[in-house]
Amino acid sequence: MIDFLYRTILIGVGATALLDLWALILQWFFRVPAPNWGLVGRWFCHLTKAKVFHDDIALSRAYPFERAIGWIGHYVIGIAYAGALLAFARPDWASAPTLAPALAVGIITVGAGWFLLQPGMGAGIAASKRPNAKQIRSMNIAGHIVFGLGLYGSALLIR
Q1: Which one of 17, 30, 43, 46 has the lowest number of neighbouring Cβ atoms within 10 Å?
Q2: How many CB atoms lie within 10 A of CB 87?
Q3: What is residue 130's predicted lDDT score, i.e. its pLDDT?
Q4: Are 136 and 98 in contact (CB under 8 A)?
């Protein structure tokens, strides 16, 4: 069990850090805005009050430390996805990682953003209420592929 937790944390943190590096590269070279972890943190805070869906999270009540909460939540979710990968992949996957299961988890987890986070924050299903919804969806898919590559790469590094 300790080995599972150790691998889950390292793989999840590594994959999430690669996703963050990807976001920085997009920001530096292509002027893509960085994710707003403060608003994500605000959404997490409202979850504690059983408020999941907002018309516009930016207009919802602010909380102290919501940016830090957003960053922490971002990494906790990355770790949870790594745990799901390790739980559902073949038992020896962490010892001999293969790309397909990691990419599958990366791509499948796009659904959490499209069907929970984005509607919850007021952007609609798969950002349908945003004027650049197709661009957002493309960036979501690309980012989650990078996350999947990070799961695989992190597992290779610690095997």
Answers
A1: 30
A2: 9
A3: 97
A4: no
